[in-house]
């Protein structure tokens, strides 16, 4: 049972620290360097204010959206995270069941601690048991050292019934000093040699090393586009020009993201670049955003600045650590209920009704 004093996502975060080994907790929570970007992601959501509209007719309204041909109960999905078993022995299986129960899309990481097939089975079984339509499942791809290995992962995702491929492009140069606890591994990559990894923070240089030489380029996106007929979403875009290039190379959607502040410090927050990117995309592709979503009003703020939907990262792990599948379902319910209230307070019958006119910031106060 969920303790009665857990009411918000912050309550889960406060408790989660007591449910995980210290090293895993630090790994999950941390950002790059001085963690300025990590903090700014959240601070910028907090600084933005929503402008409610009263007495609007909300009859027949709903939080549901259709995204890339898929139905979502609300404009949010679960972001891809590596190794959910760091938080709970049931790991991704618990998250997939909770997401299926709540009609929430889940993006499964290449670095999941159960196989993508096991996760898909858990999701579909939960939907069946509850008599619900299957919830969208997307597979997040980290390109492997050779294309045949990447293609093999994509084919496995297709065969397992995944609905879309998310290519993460912002983390190929990321360094981490974290060592996985015994018994937790990248289940999808079992038996494969690990990717070129040189060094950790403060370690050897990048240029002239395999890390740079093997790093993906736009050619790889073009290759991936012809390797699958599934919708293709590119994750980790911060420049409007890169959003345009992604679309030119065949992306059906982009995820505006600084990887939760984990890759490099000093990057823009997703919210600060979102309006420019949404304008550059101009409706030609779906625009998603992640980094710092911690309550339902944050979803409304992201939509106001041009997103079609958001992804939620670390809160999955907080809920999973504290209360397993029930905790994740609870967090999804909290977010959905908070978002629903926000949408109604803004006078919007549908998520699409939320616009720039619904937010003000310290600069343009009230105008
Ligand atoms: C991530 N993220 C990530 N992204 C991805 O594409 N593949 C991955 O395997 C991972 N793994 C991962 C592990 C952990 C512990 C974290 C915290 C993050 C990034 C993730 O998808 C997302 O961009 C951020 O987590 C969003 O920020 P919030 O919601 O955590 O603030």
Automatic annotation (TrEMBL):
Record CDD domains: alpha_hydroxyacid_oxid_FMN
Binding site for FMN: 80-82, 109, 140, 168, 235, 257, 290-294, 313-314
MF terms (GO), sorted A to Z: FMN binding; oxidoreductase activity, acting on CH-OH group of donors
The UniProt record lists the keyword Oxidoreductase: yes
Cofactor needs: FMN
Active site per the UniProt annotation: 259 (proton acceptor)
UniProt xrefs under Gene3D superfamilies: Aldolase class I
Binding site for glyoxylate: 142, 259, 262
Protein keywords: Flavoprotein, FMN, Oxidoreductase
Domain (FMN hydroxy acid dehydrogenase): residue spans on this chain: 1-364
Family named by the database record: Belongs to the FMN-dependent alpha-hydroxy acid dehydrogenase family.
Protein name in the entry: Alpha-hydroxy-acid oxidizing enzyme
Species of origin: Sandarakinorhabdus glacialis
């Amino acid at each position: 049972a969920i303790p009665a004093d857990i009411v918000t996502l912050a309550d889960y975060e406060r408790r989660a620290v007591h449910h995980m080994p210290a090293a895993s907790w630090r790994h999950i929570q941390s950002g790059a360097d001085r963690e300025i970007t990590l903090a700014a992601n959240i601070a910028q959501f907090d600084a933005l204010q929503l402008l409610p509209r009263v007495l609007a007719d909300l009859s027949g309204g709903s939080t549901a959206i259709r995204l890339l041909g898929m139905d979502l109960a609300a404009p949010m999905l679960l972001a891809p995270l590596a190794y959910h078993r760091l938080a709970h022995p049931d790991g991704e299986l618990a998250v997939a069941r909770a997401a299926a129960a709540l009609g929430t899309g889940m993006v499964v990481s290449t670095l999941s601690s159960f196989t993508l097939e096991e996760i898909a089975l858990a999701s579909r079984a939960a939907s069946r048991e509850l008599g619900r339509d299957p919830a969208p499942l997307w597979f997040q791809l980290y390109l492997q050292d050779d294309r045949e290995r990447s293609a093999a992962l994509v084919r496995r995702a297709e065969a397992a019934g995944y609905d879309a491929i998310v290519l993460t492009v912002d983390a190929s140069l990321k360094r981490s000093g974290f060592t996985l606890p015994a018994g937790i591994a990248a289940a999808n990559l079992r038996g494969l040699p690990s990717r070129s990894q040189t060094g950790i923070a403060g370690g050897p240089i990048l240029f002239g090393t395999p890390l740079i030489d093997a790093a993906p380029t736009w050619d790889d996106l073009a290759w991936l586009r012809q390797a699958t007929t599934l919708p293709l979403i590119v994750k980790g875009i911060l420049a409007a020009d890169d959003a345009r290039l992604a679309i030119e190379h065949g992306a059906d959607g982009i995820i505006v993201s600084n990887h939760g502040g984990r890759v490099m410090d000093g990057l823009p927050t997703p919210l600060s670049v979102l309006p420019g990117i949404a304008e550059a995309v101009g409706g030609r592709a779906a625009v998603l955003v992640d980094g710092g979503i911690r309550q339902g009003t944050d979803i409304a703020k992201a939509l106001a600045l041009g997103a079609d939907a958001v992804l939620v990262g670390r809160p999955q792990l907080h809920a999973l650590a504290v209360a397993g599948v029930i905790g994740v379902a609870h967090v999804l319910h909290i977010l959905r209920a908070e978002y629903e209230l926000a949408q109604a307070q803004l006078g919007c019958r549908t998520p699409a009704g939320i616009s720039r006119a619904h937010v003000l910031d310290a600069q343009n106060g009230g105008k």
